[in-house]
Design brief:
Mean pLDDT: 90
CATH architecture of the largest domain: 3-Layer(aba) Sandwich
Number of helices: 17
Helix content: 40-55%
Strand content: 5-15%
Largest sheet: 6 strands, parallel
Radius of gyration: 22 Å
Low-confidence stretches: 1-26
Strand order of the largest sheet: 2-1-5-6-7-8
Amino acid sequence: MNFIRWRQLATVFSSSHSNLQQLHSIPHSVFILGRFPPPIDGQSMLTEQTARLLEDTWKVHRINTALQGETYVRTSSRWNLSLVSHYLNLINHTRRALALAPDAPVIWNSISPKPLGHFRDLFSIVSAFRPHQKVYAVVHWGNFDLLFRSPLTRFTARRLVRRLTGFVFNSDNLNENCAAWIPAEKRFIILNTIDSASRCTHAEVVQKQALRIQRKSLRLLFLSNMIPAKGYFDVLGAVQLLHAAGIPVFADFIGRWQSDKDCTVFKNYVTEYNLNNVVQAHGGLNNRAAIKQFYLDADVFLLPTYYPTEAQPVSILEAINAGTPVVTTRHASIPHMVREHAKEALFVPPRSPEAIAVALRTLLDTTTWLSYSKAAEMRFMTHFSPEAVRQQWEALLARP
């Protein structure tokens, strides 16, 4: 392999043990730059999570790129004078923040893969960095390599590579996608984990397993933004097929609707097929304790996504932490997160309610379900625990 894996970072961590011991007595500063909750979405959660992971040993300075004063700015909205004003102000805001600890490294969690976002980044973020400041950009996007392929951005993207200290990817395949343009010594892999409010104890998972084997019905969970390419309507179709076959099933859908039209189509389908008693759409939820309970209550988590910019869905990590078997697609980084041969997940083709229904029939058997549940929890414990991820970050930041 021509890239630096987190296991290699752990070697650096061990060799720098004396330096890290000093970190525990004299906290070093680090800047976390990006969107923080609220609102809660995958990227803002990961940004806050990184900050919390490092707070035990580092003095963490948060720079929220979505705030203008005390007002939240929706950075994904269409460009207008208010948004332009926000990015103009962001330059000085970031410079003033970075001046608090001039030699501190920066973890930049909001780098964009899109041409317009890229030029916005160069103008409002990169221009605020000090000349020799260590900056690690975290890549959340499955299509980040398009920056280097597009004639609009390929030259400025390469200049950005020269300016930044490194790029952090959360999976092998995302890293490999950019290997042609980013040198091996600037590419790092650090896996994602989940926040403390979402984490389940082993005792909670064991209790969940005991309750599941006492009943024959299946409780399903879809949790993501309600974007058609995330596969929520395919899940709904599978529920209809199982319900029509007389299989006892109940499905919770959690996520913000992207349009009133999508919501209306969903509700009309539920009414047309008499699914009102077996389907409940909760909308977006910000209560992390409530979301954790949904994962514990669920027998199966479903995310049959074909979303173009999917990377490593945090929802899958939350599900396997709760010992919840996953039905998903071989898309983006997902096959690197959970494996079918290890009975951590069942994979289905995209846009296939019929295949989803078949997978769910497999998990109706309690013995089969229990083996998947145990394997899912073990996968999280061995690869995605906060302790392992924290060591990876500390090793990276300790590099000379």
